[in-house]
Amino acid sequence: MSFKTTIHKLAGAALAAATLLAVAPMGAANAEGDGAISVPTAIAGSYTGETITIQGDKSMLEGHQFKAVRIGTYANVKGTANGDGTTGVLNAVSVGTDPQITAEATTALREVKGGDADVHYQGNPVGEVAAKWLGFSGQANDDTTNDDTTSNNGGLGHAWDGKLRQFVSNVFYSAKFGTLLGAAAAQPTDSSAATVAGDKMTVSISGLLPGIYMVDDVTGEAGAAGMTGKSGSAAAAKAAGNSIPMLVSTAITSDGVAYNKIGASNETLGVVDMKNDAPTVDKALDTDKINNASIGGEMHYKLTGSVPLTTGFRRYIYTMVDRPAQLGLHFVSGSEKVMVGTTQLSAANGDYKVTAHAAAGGQFKDIPGDDSTDYVVFDLSPSILKFRYRDSIVITYTMSITDDADGGQLQNGATLSYSSDVNNQPSAANSGDPTVATIDPASGNVVSDGTGNGSLASNATSPENPASVASFRKFSVVTKPKLAWDNAKDEAARDAIGGLTGVKYQLFAADAKPSGAKAGEGSAMADALKFIKLGDGHYKLVAAQNASNNAFVSDLEVGSDGKLTFDGLGKGDYSVRELTRPAGYSDTFMPVFKVHVEADAANAAKSIYTNESDSWNLVAPHATAVSSDKPIVVLAITSISQLPLTGGAGIVLALLVIVLLAVATGTLIMVRRRLRQE
Q1: Cα 554 from Cα 236, distance rounded (Å)
Q2: Given this model, what pLDDT does residue 161 score?
Q3: Checking phi first, is residue 175 left (phi over 0); if not, alpha (psi -120 to 50) or beta?
Q4: What is the phi/psi pair of residue 556, to 5°?
Q5: What integer pLDDT is reported at residue 264 of this predicted model?
Q6: Are residues 366 and 504 in the same domain?
Q7: For residue 444, what is the enclosing H or E element?
Q8: Are both 451 and 320 inside the same structural domain?
Q9: Do residues 399 and 520 both lie within one domain?
Q10: Is position 1 within any domain?
């Protein structure tokens, strides 16, 4: 065994992992007067060995079993005892490679480096790893920097990323390591073998010689108490999934003193924190885009997460799934943009796969692009292992709003599915095949169907997540008799006047000029917008305005209460035209007027509006926003004499008076001439 490297500098902190985290690397600067420490080589006499302690939430530890295999040894140790005489601080340690794993560690190191070991570490691959990838620098040569900056960047995942992560995984999957792990004693975590305090639990693996160990959660493995290798299939379900392989440095007990700290860093050796750092997904509207929440409009969504800890995995399932809460959203194919860190992924290159499923209950599947989507799966499994732990994942995409959408709100959430058990991984027909998820077409869930998808966990945001709610705009109109309106003594009495039935309206886009509109009431001729009837006097806008469907109408009739509601609209300006009136009312002077509708600032689910008057002043203008719960009143007249004396109506009356006076004057002149002739 070779000890050519004295580890003397700790550059990073302990790391967090997705399910378990493990690392208490060791080393410190030499100090003048440090005393040599004898390193035990056998469990004998009063020496009972070192201990690795695993601590964390009871829900994550209870029912699990752990094993430890030594891969690194200690020599040339120096330390300082504390004043209590029972504990001490390590100041310098030489790290060697345990002979039982030297060949496998050498091969693993070569695979990661793409070449042979450093000449200063011949026969000591773990020493080289400790010196270069655990945040230390060696004294045996001119090593002054860490050549794996990913593993030594000071971040929470530093020691499980980059080259160190690959090395640990390669050793973990060697046949020899599986044999050693199978021969090790399993330590169960239950109430009889662990310390429980509330929702926390601590379990220990004892009787170990000093060194660097790889620890594995073997829960459910075939023959957990005496395994024969990592190839054994799972014999029982895991309570909460198995851990990644953990790298842990033990303390050293010599002459009754437990040297369990690392210099001034105060790092405790031999302790593993099991943390619940499960991957999550968040969903929101993409505020960088304009979202037009109207039937036929487009919504832009954003899914965010981060690269999970994939140490120990050679195949890994990772999918984000968009889940609409109701019908009415259609995934726009090719609209997605998938970013991991600063890298944009390409579906064409096989970096990810998108699966969109048409909703079986959609009513408009026969209209191209107007069918509703049940779910959209973004499967990043083929490339997720290429990226660094905690790199950001951002997926943006577009959903069009279809004719299946009802008025009101659009709600949807997201589900994340990810591999959770390093001992039960996905597989493929050929080792070179990309990892892809198997999707249940009925539900959109990622499933394990016997083809080797491995153990999966999930995390979801509610479809009712306010960040992903989009509300439609709406407003209403009602036609009332002008005579009753004029005779009402107050607003309450006017509100009590029933609306007239048998009235029809049309709605036009903001700049459209409805047929019959007067000057200034529009700038271009256009067809009326089409709607579909939701109920009595309640219509929603149609997405497929050019589609032929008998249910799509533009002449909208008021309900039995005389009210008509335009729903499914987006924020903006519209022109309203009264098309017909009931018998007994004049159809000569029917209003055309403009309405602006938008969200209520106090409650985005509600709409407010302002509106202009018409040419005949039969529509009262609202310059200040009014709740859409209050309909716009359009007055109907039975004769021209009921027209208001202002605006266009007043001009018409004035012209009529002039005409009548002219006619009367002409008549008088004619009578006078006749009298003279007589």
Answers
A1: 63
A2: 53
A3: alpha
A4: -105, 125
A5: 66
A6: no
A7: none
A8: yes
A9: no
A10: no
In-domain check, residue 105: yes
Cα 15 from Cα 5, distance rounded (Å): 24
What is the spatial distance between Cα 632 and Cα 360, in angstroms, rounded to a whole number? 39
How many other C-beta atoms lie within 10 A of the C-beta of residue 555?
Answer: 12
SS3 668: helix
Residues 6+ apart with CB under 8 A from 626: 608, 609, 610
Which of the listed residues 274, 308, 343 is the one where a domain comes to its end? 274
CA-to-CA distance for 134 and 269, rounded, in angstroms? 14
204 neighbors 66 (Cβ within 8 angstroms): no
Reference 357, options 380, 336, 335, 329; nearest CA is 329
> Would 132 be classed as within a structural domain?
yes
Provide the token pair at 275.
Answer: 């943390």
Among candidate residues 445, 470, 495, the one where a domain is terminated: 470
Is residue 159 within 8 A of residue 15, CB to CB? The reply is: yes
Residues (pLDDT < 50) of the chain are 1-33, 136-160, 222-241, 519-525, 649-661
User: CB of 122 within 8 A of CB of 157?
Assistant: no
DSSP letter for 221, please: B
pLDDT for the residue 27 = 36
And the tokens for 451?
């083809």
Number of separate domains in the chain:
4
Q: Which domain holds residue 422?
A: 282-470
Mark whether 533 and 678 lie in a shared domain. no
Q: What is the distance between the alpha carbons of residues 220 and 368, in angstroms, rounded to a whole number? A: 50
Note the pLDDT tens digit of each residue in 297-317. 999 999 999 998 787 788 899
- Give Cα 671 distance to the centre of its chain: 89
Q: What is the pTM of this model?
A: 0.71
Are 188 and 65 a contacting pair, CB within 8 Å? yes
What pLDDT does residue 150 have? 43
Q: How many CB atoms lie within 10 A of CB 467?
A: 12
Angle, to 10 degrees, between the axis of helix 125-133 and the axis of helix 162-172?
150
Residue 370 lies in a domain: yes
Per-residue model confidence (pLDDT) at position 14: 27
Verify that 34 and 167 share a domain, yes or no.
Answer: yes
**Which residues have a Cβ under 8 Å from the Cβ of 358 and sit 6 or more positions away?**
365, 371, 372, 373, 374
Residue 373 near residue 435, CB atoms below 8 Å: no
113 & 212 share domain: yes
pLDDT at 342: 93
Joined tokens for residue 667: 């008549």
